[in-house]
Design goal:
With 396 residues, this protein is an all-alpha fold. The protein is built from 13 helices and no strands. 81% of the residues lie in helices and 0% in strands. Helix 3 runs antiparallel to helix 4, helix 6 packs across helix 9 and helix 7 packs antiparallel against helix 12. Keywords: Membrane, Transmembrane, Transmembrane helix.
């Protein structure tokens, strides 16, 4: 294992993740305070998610031709530009212009996120030798620590909005991430991910059976999370429970941090189980958990206690599901095609986030948090069914 390169890639991903989580909370809370409806808030993130779809597909192809260092640096640079661009928004602009401007800046951020994620996840396959489950361990650590820091980013977003205001918070994050970019440019020396042969564009869609099924399952798995997490939950906490910005940010942060720690420890949960079977089993548990939470909220059964405990259990089970998926995609691909296959897989992830983000605003408007949770449960059932055909032996 190349420890130095792994540490630099991970640190770069961590720096990006802090700004990504904080930016999500900043935009959500700031524009909710300005009076934007749940559907309008969802639209602010649509281009962010849609650009993620295109970026994962084309980014994998680009990474295979130019190497993963280039795509990693490009992702960090675009995020700095997106933060600076958003800070220049004028509150006096008309609503339509403001929404279009924010959507454009979020589009840049979406491209940045998926370039950085694809580069970092692909690099793990190339930097870690898969001996005695090492690949499962290190990809879980990378993914889990990233999500824990995203939770810290949620908290940071609420705190910075309170302390520095919208524009000041954006400038502070842009400056911090620029330093991370500079450090990675100086210290990351190893070339990674460039294919030996030029990849044709039509090869982007030529995937193995396992990768196709897993990518489809990933789509519905992440749609099931974002359909209540992106818009519905924070708006519910603010409007129905009367929580402050800091309380909402702190709760979201605690949930994602806990989720990240569980994800990092996921190999311990499935140590004696074939990961293919684990993907089916844990997805089934997640479907039952989500449906039970929806019933509790629908029947108004101690709603606050049910919501908080139910979301904690959802986070634990979802984290294990996500970690198993993240390992399987690396196990199903070879070193020479890792950027292409990981990019294709995370394109499914991005489609799921896009679908979940849109439905989060729509379903909350139609039927509140209960409708979002029932939609989530249905999507988890689909994700479970799509993991059943996985047959390749992938025991770590």
């Amino acid at each position: 294992m190349n420890t130095k390169s792994y540490a630099i890639v991970t640190a770069s991903y961590w720096g990006f993740t802090l700004t990504d989580g904080a930016l999500r909370m900043l935009v959500l809370l700031h524009f909710h305070a300005l009076g934007y409806s749940p559907v309008s808030l969802a639209f602010l993130f649509l281009l962010y998610e849609f650009c993620g779809v295109l970026t994962n597909l084309l980014g994998g192809w680009l990474g295979s031709r130019t190497g993963l260092k280039f795509t990693l640096y490009a992702g960090l640079t675009l995020q700095v530009l997106a933060l600076v661009m958003l800070s220049l928004m004028n509150p006096a602009w008309a609503t339509a212009l403001s929404v279009s401007y924010v959507m454009t800046s979020q589009a840049l951020s979406g491209i940045a996120k998926d370039l950085t994620k694809m580069s970092s996840k692909s690099a793990v396959k190339l930097l870690v030798a898969d001996q005695s489950g090492a690949l499962f361990k290190w990809v879980s650590i990378l993914t889990g620590s990233k999500n824990a820091l995203k939770g810290v980013g949620f908290l940071l977003g609420g705190v910075l909005l309170t302390w520095l205001g919208f524009q000041g918070a954006l400038w502070a994050m842009a400056g911090g991430l620029a330093l991370v970019l500079l450090a990675s440019l100086i210290y990351l020396k190893q070339d990674m991910g460039k294919t030996k042969q030029k990849v044709k564009f039509n090869q982007l869609f030529s995937k193995s059976r396992e990768i196709n099924w897993l990518s489809a399952a990933r789509l519905f798995l992440f749609a099931s999370r974002d359909v209540w997490f992106v818009v519905a939950l924070p708006v519910f906490l603010k409007e129905s429970l009367g929580w402050s910005f800091n309380q909402v940010g702190s709760f979201m942060a605690a949930w994602v941090i806990g989720y990240g720690f569980v994800q990092a420890a996921a190999p311990k949960f499935v140590r004696k189980t074939d990961p293919n079977q684990a993907a089916v089993t844990w997805a089934g548990i997640l479907a039952i958990t989500t449906a039970a939470l929806a019933v509790a909220i629908m029947l108004d059964f101690h709603p606050v206690a049910s919501l908080l405990s139910g979301l904690a259990l959802f986070g634990i089970v979802f984290a294990v599901n996500s970690a198993v998926h993240s390992y399987l995609i690396l196990n199903f691909t070879n070193d020479d095609e890792v950027a292409l296959n990981v990019g294709f897989y995370y394109m499914g992830n991005a489609w799921g986030r896009l679908l979940g983000t849109l439905l989060s605003g729509v379903m909350f408007l139609v039927g509140g948090l209960t409708a979002c949770l029932w939609t989530s449960a249905a999507m988890v059932v689909l994700a479970t069914l799509l993991t059943v055909p996985l047959r390749k032996d992938s025991t770590p």
